[in-house]
Design brief:
The chain has about 240 residues and is of the alpha/beta class. It has a domain of about 130 residues: 3-Layer(aba) Sandwich (Rossmann fold), CATH 3.40.50.300. About 40% of the residues lie in helices and about 25% in strands. Strands 6-7-8-3-9-10 form a six-stranded mixed beta sheet. A four-stranded antiparallel beta sheet has the order 2-1-4-5, covered by helices on one side. The longest helix is centred in the last third of the chain and has 18 residues. The protein starts with a strand and ends with a helix.
Length: about 240
């Protein structure tokens, strides 16, 4: 298997509180990988560390062959262009239209012409299932589901190899959530993406994830397929899944 993310012995400390203590996992190319665990276990913290929004205090994280420890600024900037991130609430800029939000990475990190940027934005809008007319709306004028799709279109603007999703179906009604799950599967196959997702949505977990890592007590309590969860001997893992239902 071609490993695109390797996390080894990662330790994370906030003041006197240890969040991760020797955390290990790996993500293979082309899979949809889930980070699961009880609230407060450090799922989103780990996600932020992987995308270089937060420092970790021990161990190593390697992405696409690059070690994050001691990475140079120029190398880090180059690496950041290899992934897109969909934050939990969409994180759209309220003063920009949907089209302007999606165009932002292209304006900041490419020297493409405005005409080319406009064409890419229109393509990404259609790719995530929004209408062309939605491009001129502002975040305050669209539904929660449309905000998620707009955030996803922005995350895909630079044609990334990796996609990170933090609770992508939270706040959505059941129909919109399943629609979003279908979109994630379609995009993975269409664009050849590797996807890492934090989720509490049991239906989404079963419908989309190839493998999962469950964080508990500062470490990975389980890593494997959903079929393997059923045979896991750990009482915590069985209880965790029954609590999700």
């Amino acid at each position: 298997m071609d490993k695109v993310i390797e996390v080894k012995d990662v330790k994370t400390v906030f003041g006197t509180r240890v969040v991760h203590d020797g955390l290990n996992l790996c993500v293979n190319r082309g899979e949809i990988y889930g980070l699961l665990g009880p609230s407060g276990c450090g799922k989103t913290t780990l996600l932020r560390e992987i995308v270089m929004l937060q420092e970790f205090h021990g161990g190593s994280i390697k992405i696409l062959g690059d070690e994050l420890n001691g990475i140079s600024h120029s190398k880090a900037q180059k690496l950041r262009r290899e992934w897109g991130v969909l934050f939990q609430a969409g994180a759209l800029f309220s003063s920009l239209t949907i089209a302007q939000n999606i165009a932002l990475p292209l304006v900041e990190y490419s020297d493409l012409s405005q005409k080319m940027i406009n064409e890419i934005v229109e393509f990404k809008i259609n790719l995530v299932g929004l209408k062309s007319a939605d491009a001129n709306l502002y975040p305050s004028q669209i539904s929660g589901g449309m905000k998620k799709k707009s955030g996803l279109a922005r995350a895909l603007a630079m044609d990334p190899k990796l996609l990170f999703l933090d609770e992508p179906t939270s706040g959505l009604d059941p129909i919109s959530a399943r629609d979003f799950d279908s979109l994630i599967l379609k995009l993975r196959d269409l664009l050849g993406l590797t996807i890492v997702m934090v989720s509490h949505d049991l239906q989404s977990i079963y419908d989309t994830l190839d493998r999962i890592a469950i964080i508990d007590n500062k470490k990975i309590a389980f890593e494997g397929t959903l079929d393997e969860v059923a045979s896991a001997k750990s009482e915590f893992i069985q209880t965790f899944f029954s609590d999700l239902k």
